[in-house]
Amino acid sequence: MLWLVLLATACRSTPPGGPAVITLPASMLGAEGEVLRIQLARFARLRPDIRVVQRATPDAADQRHQLYVQWLNAGASEPDILQLDVVWTPEFAAAGWILDLDRFHPPTDSFFPATVTANRWRGRLYAVPWFVDVGMLYWRTDLMRAPPATFAELEREAARARAERGLRYGLVWQGARYEGLVAVFSEYLGGFGGRILDGGRVTVSSPAGVRALTSMRDQIYRQGIVPPATLTWHEEESRFAFQNGETAFMRNWPYAYALMADSAESRVAGRYAVAVMPAESGGRPTAALGGAQLAINANSSHAESAWAVIDYLTRPEQMLERARVVGQFPTRPSLYDDPALARALAIPPAQARAIIEHAVPRPVTPVYTQLSDILQIYLHRALTRQLEPAPALAGAATEMQALLDRVGLGEARPIAGR
Amino acid sequence: MPGGERRRAASAEAREARLAWCLAAPAIATILLVALFPLGWTVWESMHLHDLRMPWLGRSFIGADNYVEAVRDARFRQALGHTLLFTVATVTIELGLGCTLALAMNRAFRGRALVRAAVLVPWAIPTVVSALLWRFIFEGRAGIANALMVDVGLVREAPVWFIRSGLVWIPVVLADVWKTTPFVALLLLAGLQNIDASLYEAARIDGASAWRQFRHVTLPLLRPAILVALIFRTLDAFRVFDLVYVMTGGGPGTSTEPIALYTFNTLLQNLRFGYGSALSVIVFAVVFGLALGYIRFLGAGLTETRG
Amino acid sequence: MSRARWGTVAIVLLVLGSGFPLYWAIVSSFTPEARLYGTPSLIPRVLVLDHYRALFTQREFWVPIRNSLIVAGSTTGFCVLVGGLCAYALARLRFRGKAPLLGLILAVSVFPQISVVSPLYLLLRRLHLINTYPGLILPYLTFAMPLTVWLLVGFFRQLPAELEEAAMVDGASRLRTIREIVWPLAIPGLAATAILTFVYSWNEFLFALSFTLGPERQTVPVAIALFRGQYQVPWGQILAAAVVATAPVALLVLAFQRRIVQGLTAGAVKG
Fold it and tell me: How far is A416 from chain B (nearest CA, A)?
């Protein structure tokens, strides 16, 4: 077995004198893998002194996360560049696993402010936003004239569509017990004027939080506009329901937009638009912020070259190309006035931008994943009627606060020992 | 016996013992290396604060703190409860059904091979597959179970099984029963076939009814087989992981989460190795306690017959 | 109802109960995706190969199959070889410490797997063996080795001792006896044990889930369980994969059913 280890280590060393080899793990599947290959090939012509090697990674977020933790925790110098989910940056930054990028003077002013906030930890930038994902409300243009501005309006429209058009459902979202549920909840929460975290204090069980969760639950069991089956659904199940014309509204990510435009597959082609999620008075329309960022391994032996790659991949031209090929939103607001983007994106850029401007990062904390884990469980318990909303959120808040306190992130205490 | 011969016998014995150890050593060493040594490591790890996600916390010795946390952890206690519920429900049903089937199979009839095949295939397929299969059967509108229930007129609209904290146990238990009852039936059938037919003969001559024969001949003689099946199934059910991971993910909420799954999540999802190890040790202690209890109950019959 | 008829009813129910879910899985794996989500009907109307094609073209399902074959095969080979020697010693030779050894093996075989996940993970990580074949085979030995030894002790016990004794009286050494007398006789038992060990290793999930990280080293059960993609649940492909994953073990088990039943019950009941 030992020889395998030796072999593995032998293979990993780079030949001296050649170009700097930068490893970049990213999705190699489909259009996403293809566009990256094209862009890296162009980069290679521009900078022959740098060779970028793509590495296959698992597509499922939690598996990729586990893989990264394992690499970084072992102090490996590879991969040099990491593609991070928006909620991982603070975790990796706090662990000292990724490089503080301020030394390279990134053009932070040219990105959406929310995407920059999400990638800052203790005031320093640790990752560059690559593309942005936002939660949004899909609505049927043949059933109503304008998207609802409040939840009450949404509920009315949904009920009317069901009564008059015989639709099976009014609204669908992602209610299975996973990260998607927290994203949906954070949009309701923002709409009711609540927050999950305020500094080191958990505020999810505030009256606004209870109202938001109660509203989600009532939409299932009282108004009956959200099907109970939603509580087992991920993105695609909701898309199928919307695409089959079974529902008036859907909360989903941008990826669904282009997929439903094909009239051979979709019964709603040409009859839907997107808007930001509704809000109540006292709240603010909210879109959960997702998307990918690029960061540099703190142990990378070619940090400068890695930065050159990141800088290239996040340039306006590359972002436009990505938008055209994969349909992902650029992180640079200036591009949204560019007619090239209107040609590239299925969604009208103005609509997209209006939603992105309501984007709110989920709590920016190194223990986000654990906090989300706790919250998911309590949300799901409340939504499946095992607990009432208020005690559920109180339970979640207690556990989340205990976690923050345990790791020294409670209130405003600094992290010990770093 | 003259001294030389005794010595020779003794040295032959020593040779045999030496050979035995030589033959056994590689396997035993493997077991020590891959099972016992890691187990010790788990115990050691369980007394540390070790969080792979939060390397800045260090890795300090904290004694029994993790165990104290486990005792206070409501989710862990609930997981223990779910595991017990699952174990009792599945083992009871499987033994009852398995016993019935074994009795039915214990008579000569045509198509034995077919029956054995029907019994073996569910046992042989991966648990992951059977869990997915049963999830599919109970899934949404497309699930055949739901469609049949509606067709037969049992319900107007089928429930969403996987969001009801009580109902969700039905597909979970059913999937396990489907997969393992055959195994139990086989064990019991082997036990039945060991029973001397002349005992039934004698009972019949005495004019004993079928029930009395079962009660006074079959059951007592089948007892060892039943106990072995009971042990195997209990310990197996207590370790349940694959089925729940795939079928419900422990949900809705955490209402079907067994201890193995909670421990797994603590270790590999949250990367809390110290606390997760403490949970592992507790699971181990419970399983080991159960096994010891059963073996004592059996009168040490297990190792004795082999030893 | 007479007893005989009651027995027949029980048997028919058993065959139906066991068989129906399998039938349903097979039928559904050939049903077009669109029909899969409609109202199901017991007798299929349209059968297509779409899901199987997608399985091997889009998903590269042969990768997990190859991984499973390598891992389960190596585990089985190693265990039967090494465990066979150990089992022979435990079944036939007289030496002190035999009973504790048997006790140890039995105890390890009831180990909850989860209780060694954390140290094995840390160990494999330190050895850079996470997401490698040795990194799976090694953990698999924790359950496969005791299982193999335990089953083989049962088989060796059933072999008639007279032949060996006769050979030894004739002056053959132990090792020669093993090679020339015991080995040929033991082949059926070894084969049955190998099949059982292979089936257990093929079906294993927890370790494979814990110690692999990406599609390139995942075994069949892990690949199937994680089919639920980032966004969707492709039931058609899942069921097709289920059929593919089950077919080899089901065929093995059916081909050797008599021996396997003997092995299972000898290992447990007489134990």
Answer: 8
